[in-house]
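Researcher: Sequence of Phytocyanin domain-containing protein follows. Predict its structure.
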Amino acid sequence: MSREKGNAIFVTIMVLGLMLHSNLAHGMTYTVGDSRGWDFDVAGWENGKKFHSGDTLVFKYSEGAHNVVVVNKSDYDSCNVPDNATTFSSGNDKVKLRKGPIYFICGIPGHCDAGMKIAINAA
Ligand SMILES: *[C@@H]1O[C@H](CO)[C@@H](O)[C@H](O)[C@H]1NC(C)=O
Ligand SMILES: *[C@@H]1O[C@H](CO)[C@@H](O)[C@H](O)[C@H]1NC(C)=O
Ligand SMILES: [Cu+2]
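Model: Prediction complete. C-alpha cells:
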C-alpha cells in the first residue's frame, strides 16, 4: 500500500471514530414537543423516535404554567402525581436519558389528563 493511501485510510478511521465518539458521548438533544414545547397534547410526540442513553430531553414552557414530574408506569397511566417525586419546574428543564423506560407527566392538576405526558424507552 502506498504511504498516501495508508494515511488516507488512517485519517478516515480517525474521523469515523470521532463521529462515533461524539455521538455516544454527547447524544442527541430533543426539544420535547418540538416548536410547541411542553404543552397540552404533547402526548405522542415521542412516537416513532429512537431514543438512546445519553440523549437529552429539553422541556420548554412558561415557568409556573407547567412542570415536569418523573413517575413510574402506573402513575403515568393513571396520571397520579406522587409525593416527593423528582420534579423540574424551571421552564427549561434538561434531562439526560439513561437506558430503559422513563415516564414524564405534568404535575399541574388536569394537565396530564389533557395529554401532558410522554413515555420514553431509551436504548
Ligand atoms: C409507582 O409509584 C407510586 C407512588 O410513588 C407507588 O405507590 C407505586 O407502588 C409505584 N408502582 C410501581 C409499579 O412501582
Ligand atoms: C416526602 O419527603 C418528606 C421530607 O423528606 C418526608 O417527611 C415525607 O414523609 C415524604 N412523603 C412521602 C409520601 O414519602
Ligand atoms: Cu402542565
